[in-house]
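P.,

For your records, the input lines for the assembly:
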Amino acid sequence: MIHTHNLTFGYPHHALLFQDFNWQVQRGETWTILGSSGCGKTSLLYLLAGLRAPANGGIEIDGEALLRPRPRTGLILQDYGLLPWATVRQNAELGLQVRDFYGPDGKHTPKNFQAENKVPYWLERLGLSAVADKFPSQLSGGQRQRTAIARTLALQPDLLLMDEPFSSLDAVTREDLQNLTLSLCMEQNLTLVMVTHAIEEAAALGQKILLLDTAPNQQAHIFDNPQACQPNYRNSQSYHDLCQTLWREMRHE
Amino acid sequence: MKRRDLLFSALGLLIAWQAVALLVHRPILPGPWEVIVVFFKELDNGLLIHFGVSLWRATAGMALSVLVAAPAGLAIGGSSRLNRIFSPIIYLLYPIPKVVFVPVVFLFLGIGDVAKIAIIFLILFFQILVLVRDQAAGLPPQLLQSLHSLGAGRRALFRFVYLPASLPAILTALRQSIGTAVAVLYITELFATKYGLGYYIYYNGSTLFDYPAMYAGVVAMSLLGLGMYFFVDWLERWLCPWKYVT
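Structure tokens returned:
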């Protein structure tokens, strides 16, 4: 589904983050991108979202070159990106409003987009109906992130990009939302690419883990983790072993 | 702020006024009761018309400045290129006290209502421009990125982010400038007019030496500023309910 070929990217006046970087993601896979600060993991996510352009090489999603944000890609950020002046319901409807604003032009909105308001369904499904008329400042961190998820899912995406979405949540809420994300990905057949700096999160959610190293990243360093997403995987020995391996890899031991 | 607290504060100020009036004990400072009685008597005697004229000038100046400065602030704050071009100019012009342009505006626009409205516009314009520009330029990049990812281009960003984000800035600028605007209105109404509260206050105080009537004018001008302040407060509660939730 995603194919980066000879991707080269860096910020002006800084060293390159990616150089001739090749990487592939298949439809329906759940990926986590792990790495220490400054290794380029968020930049890679923004490149996949079409919010940054590579200096060289390119990215293809579904066989099409990515030149701008793609209507069927959903992006969820750490600080939720909610409008403070809009209620939960209005925030969840925002993507649909933007599509309505442009109409099905094929650039901002898919040409075959059926304007079906699934917001009430997602608010109900994500347990937000009771707070639908509240503003983001009145919500808990978990509820805010659920709102951001509802907003993204209302647009019927096929690819979900998440940038450390649960890092500011408490442990219980974090695990709840991690499990919810996995079950939604399986149910909706979504491809997931999630950036995280937490080894445990990377191991629990990623059927495949991309470990980024010191920039510039030239080769995709991938760990297969087929048991991720299975119930009670977090309590298994193989999960703990993988965490240890990732820990050692990150410390170059 | 509770209404009860406001009422008690108003009562306290009236008592202080009465106390000072008793201490001074001269015609140039009548007590509040005497002024209130004259105020209501004068309403029928032309004060209401003077109030209406001043209200029209202040409201027209405010509305004009919002209509021009808010879009300009949005455009400059939303575009780093425009911000680079215009910010040095704004930086130089913003601190200049616009009151000094009163004679210049009269020279160019004559002595009618247009000049008076233009002066209020001039004062409010920069306040609103700067606050709206800063608000638009200071929007968190994550907010804009997530809107981009939802498919929003420049036009949708203005409609769904910049415009609603600038509302509180416009209202804050108005609230901060109302006092100055009414003060400048007073000054402009001293020149070549027979209508407006500025004229009424000056005429009663300096020509007729009718001090209670002069104070009735002062009360009317205070009510004008206070009423506009309350109105902006109400607008903010109505348009920005998210700022008042707990």
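Two observations worth noting. The longest helix of chain B spans residues 32-78. Chain B has a mean pLDDT of 90.

Regards
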